[in-house]
Write a structure and sequence with these properties.
32 strands, 19% helix, 27% strand, seven-stranded antiparallel sheet, globular, alpha+beta, single chain
Length: 627
């Protein structure tokens, strides 16, 4: 007879745990303001996401995720990273970036929890997806040059919530400029070297390769376990086998408790996907379950052979292996290996014999075991109390539940919403302690409490006592925010002279209703009771920022000057330059560009081009002030 523990060890060692049921994992996002959609640099960082043991991303130990610019354009890392881009998802509550990669001339692959799953994320609070962009070629922080933006159809061509993947259609052909990544339906092996390329936190492209490998075991619960460092925004990143240089997994989650990240094995996705099969480049043969060799006359048929058509030696080995499984004894597996050492299932039998049939030599004199007499350290400081109830004793005896309790206490000490000691005590008595010794119940209610403590309360606007119209004045464009303050996200913009209905007031902010029926908050500095007749004349100047001081080194790497072009595009001809600290007159603005003319500084006598010319410059390097 074999114990359950030994059988579990055997299953894990052979990678068979990959076929056990998978549990749903909570997700986490990093969010940005809607106004940054379409820009390479995302602005005004917000937060969204869950507070459970499972996070969307996880850094394992020291953070080993480096800019891909550290490597030359001809390196294998840079070439493979070309097909990986940032996926910007515009919702009614903000922009949420993920990662995606190109698989053919019109399709990209990412996580289902990104698209359309962002709508299921309670912390994000989104009710609709307005638009999606695939940003390719973003490698140098804050620099547009070399990037391309492609519109993505929001409805997936194919998706699976269980396998957490979504195939999306791209308008255009990104593969023509950035290539594709090859997919491989292979079985990952323990400690295989990996690379993970993506856009953590929406930043320029980064690669995790140091200490980046498959876990041991590599597969568990239909998940590919790996130790590559990631952060929010890496969702949808390809897990690339360094030896094959092909994608063997789709990264999607990580666990604080297990200090390991999770990916979906590409073999499982390809087995279900009809769209991705055309993008597969055959990889190495599966080392765990190799297909039986075809009988003579059936080479290349592509169909499995029934037992009666197998070669006699294969039929004999299949029968012997079935008998060995039936006996479940060492002598049966050893007999099978004597005859069928090269059979497809021999690796399973060899592992069984190695683990179950090795007889350790008995020493002449038994050595007494060393007993640790030191008292066991309690999991929590309060676990030594003699007055614990059933739930508290259960928490103190379970390392996972103790970790959740510590996380809940941290959230309670620094909550995102007002909470009193009596509220927390009432939750412990009336909710948590009612779980008794039920570990699933305790885990569920503590995770729910953490989520509540980390989620800010929504601003509830009291019903208006009196409404009245007002008009936008003193600015060309006025931000409409979700709450009374600049800490709230921008939900819309209104223009000079637009009419709004004031519903309520809070300090220096007015709760208004727009002409389209949407409610929001605006600063009362820019509202007037009378409709303005003339748009104010705005004088704007700019100071050149975000550059290095000019010298031969910064000249060569491009960080010591800002180009002045003939049009608001990188396609415009370069006619002059400006430098750190120069003062410019801003004559016009268009998107991420400003039309400027030099007022003072080195730009009056540039190192290239003519001084005093009027042209267009990137606003990323300008600090603009208007009066």
């Amino acid at each position: 007879m074999r114990t359950a523990a030994a059988m579990a060890t055997l299953i894990t060692s052979l990678g068979l745990a990959a076929f056990l049921p998978v549990q749903t994992r909570a997700q986490e996002f990093v969010g940005f303001d809607r106004t940054s959609f379409g820009s390479v640099v995302l602005r005004r960082n917000q937060t969204a996401g869950g507070g459970s043991d499972i996070n969307l991303e996880l850094a394992i130990g020291d953070y080993n995720n480096e800019p891909i610019l550290n490597y030359s354009p001809n390196s294998v890392f840079s070439k493979m990273g070309l097909a990986v881009g940032r996926l910007d998802i515009l919702t009614d509550t903000g922009v949420y970036p993920c990662t995606a990669f190109i698989v053919d001339d019109k399709h990209i692959l990412t996580n289902h929890h990104c698209v359309p799953g962002i709508l299921d994320n309670e912390r994000a609070g989104a009710t609709r997806i307005d638009s999606i962009l695939f940003v390719a070629g973003y490698r140098q922080p804050g620099v547009d040059e070399g990037t391309r933006r492609y519109t993505v159809v929001p409805t997936p061509v194919e998706s699976s919530k269980d396998l957490d993947y979504a195939v999306l259609e791209v308008i255009g052909d990104p593969s023509a400029d950035f290539g594709t990544l090859d997919l491989a339906a292979v079985t990952p092996q323990d400690n295989d070297p990996y690379w993970v390329i993506g856009h953590p936190m929406g930043e320029a492209q980064r690669i995790s390769r140091e200490k980046c490998r498959a876990n041991a075991p590599a597969l568990s619960n239909r998940q590919l376990l790996h130790t590559c460092d990631t952060l929010p925004g890496n969702s949808g990143s390809p897990v690339i086998d360094a030896s094959l240089q092909k994608v063997v997994g789709l990264h999607h989650a990580g666990s604080n408790r297990d200090a390991v990240n999770y990916a979906i094995p590409m073999a499982d996705i390809l087995a279900q996907s009809s769209v991705l099969k055309a993008a597969v480049v055959p990889g190495a043969p599966d080392p765990v379950t190799p297909p039986p060799a075809p009988a003579p006359g059936d080479e290349g048929s592509g169909r499995p052979l029934p037992p009666e058509e197998l070669a006699p030696e294969l039929a004999l080995c299949d029968a012997l292996y079935a008998e060995a499984k039936e006996f479940d004894e060492c002598f049966a597996y050893e007999a099978y290996l004597q005859v069928c050492g090269d059979h497809g299932y021999s690796i399973l039998a060899k592992s069984y014999v190695a683990r179950q049939c090795t007889i350790a030599e008995t020493p002449e004199e038994p050595v007494p075991p060393v007993v640790d007499t030191r008292p066991e350290e309690p999991l929590l400081w309060w676990c030594t109390s003699p007055n614990l109830n059933t739930t508290e004793r259960t928490i103190c005896g379970d390392r996972y539940l103790a970790g959740l309790d510590e996380e809940m206490e941290r959230a309670y000490k620094n909550p995102a919403r007002p909470v009193s000691a009596s509220d927390q005590q009432s939750w412990r008595i009336n909710t948590r302690d009612r779980c008794g010794a039920d570990t699933d119940c305790i885990s569920r209610v503590v995770i729910d409490r953490i989520t509540i403590l980390k989620t800010p309360e929504k601003v509830v606007t009291p019903p208006p006592s009196r409404t009245f119209p007002m008009y936008v004045t003193g600015t060309d464009h006025l931000n409409v925010r979700s709450g009374p303050g600049t800490q709230y996200g921008v939900v819309n913009r209104i223009d000079f002279g637009d009419k709004v209905t004031v519903l309520n007031q809070n300090g220096g902010w007015n709760n208004v209703r727009l002409s389209n029926g949407q409610d929001g908050w605006v600063s009362n500095r820019y509202l007037a009771s009378d409709k303005p007749r003339q748009r104010p004349v705005t004088q704007c100047t700019a100071t050149v920022v975000n550059l290095n001081h000019y010298n031969s080194h910064t000249r060569n790497n491009g960080s010591g000057f800002l180009n002045i072009r003939t049009q608001a595009s990188t396609r415009g001809r370069i006619i002059s330059e400006t430098y750190l600290g120069d003062t410019l007159r801003v004559l016009n603005q268009s998107g991420n560009w400003a039309q400027v003319r030099c007022l003072s500084g080195q730009c009056q006598n540039p190192h290239r081009g003519r001084g005093g010319v009027t042209g267009w410059a990137s606003k990323k390097y300008l600090s603009i002030r208007c009066q």
